[in-house]
Write the structure tokens for this entry.
Amino acid sequence: MAEITRPKITIIGKGGHGSNPAYSNNPIIPAIQIYKKYIKLVDKYKLEGHVFNSTLPIFKSGTAFNVV
């Protein structure tokens, strides 16, 4: 049996200009940590011989190159 689950995780930070990042709260760092823990969870189930397939196909962040 297969199941489709569409979880949505929103991490909110405080934006700032790239020239002064000390006044911002970059949400990318905790997002990367969540993703890495998720990958470890997937690997754990694969190592135990379970049939498990999971992907995180979308990872969105800002679009400006000089803004946090």
Observations:
- The mean pLDDT is 80.
